[in-house]
Specification:
Layout: E1 19-29, E2 35-45, E3 49-53, H1 60-68, E4 75-80, E5 87-90, H2 102-112, H3 117-130, H4 146-158, E6 164-168, H5 176-193, E7 196-201, H6 204-210, E8 213-217, E9 224-229, H7 238-241, H8 244-261
Parallel strand pairs: 3-7, 3-8, 5-6, 6-7
Antiparallel strand pairs: 1-2, 1-4, 8-9
Length: about 270
């Protein structure tokens, strides 16, 4: 669970009904005048799965950090349902405590929130079942594969039962087979829990397979260049991944990404 920064523009402003996240004219300018983002306008409906796709350095991760309240926008308004009090964040690296077991790593957000011991135990056990780690509850990070470490990170983000799940290229460092498996598991979790997911990726194929909407961003400073609704039969599985429909969506998004990469003004 991540509490929003006090400087979050628009804090206390409630999005329209049915909208989980709304960014309006949001910009982010870092020191020395580096314009990382914007102006960016983005709306995410509650329960939706949206992927942000774009060239390296276009501000995708910056957008996630702004939504989470880990950084404040230079200008613009960010409205998050619930005031951002119920956000789970899965980073690109698992960032696990090496001296703690899987169970203790997952329990950390609840311990920091001073939840009762019985509640912590119950929630941790339940989320470990969901991510398939029950048999590894007592294991330490050094004993886990890369995919299992990412499952622990996902479990830690889910243990507080957040309404919004932000994921910053969580599977980028994994081999293709493990990545496919975790993509399938993530979709199953999303269908079951109906969280709002905003997912950052560099992969056209991953964005199309996972998302109900792919948002393509321009080169820095990142803005929205195009959006692609992925309207296909649910639940998705290997039949979709190997279908002509999937290939057509990937081709359209890939063309959009190529066009977006030529847009924007990069300041160094």
């Amino acid at each position: 669970m991540i509490e929003p920064a006090a400087a979050l523009s628009g804090a206390g402003v409630v999005p329209r009904p049915g909208i989980a996240v709304n960014l309006t004219d949001v910009t982010k300018i870092y020191d020395r005048g580096v314009a990382a983002l914007g102006p960016l306008d983005l709306e995410v409906r509650g329960g939706d799965f949206v992927s942000l796709l774009g060239p390296s350095g276009c501000g995708k991760s910056t957008a996630l950090r702004l939504i989470a309240g880990l950084s404040a926008p230079t200008s613009g308004t960010i409205c998050v349902a619930g005031g951002g009090r119920s956000i789970g964040f899965v980073f690109q690296e698992p960032t696990l405590m090496p001296w703690a077991s899987v169970r203790d790593n997952v329990a950390l957000p609840l311990k920091l929130a001073h939840r009762p011991r019985a509640e912590i135990d119950g929630r941790v056990e339940a989320v470990l079942v969901r991510v398939g780690l029950t048999d590894f509850a007592a294991a330490y990070p050094r004993e886990l594969s890369g995919g299992m470490k990412m499952r622990v990170s996902l479990a830690r983000a889910l243990v507080t039962d957040p309404d919004i799940l932000l994921m910053d290229e969580p599977f980028a460092a994994l081999d293709e087979i493990t990545r496919f498996r975790l993509n399938n598991d993530l979709l199953a979790l999303w269908r079951d829990l109906r969280k709002t997911v905003v997912f950052v990726t560099h992969s056209v194929f991953e964005s199309v397979y996972l998302s109900r909407r792919v948002v393509v961003m321009t080169s820095r400073p990142g803005r929205i260049s195009a959006e692609f609704p992925i309207d296909t039969i649910e639940p998705r599985g290997e039949d979709f991944r190997t279908s002509a429909e999937f290939a057509a969506y990937c081709r359209a998004v890939s063309i959009g990404l190529t066009q977006a990469a030529s847009e924007g003004t990069v300041r160094r």
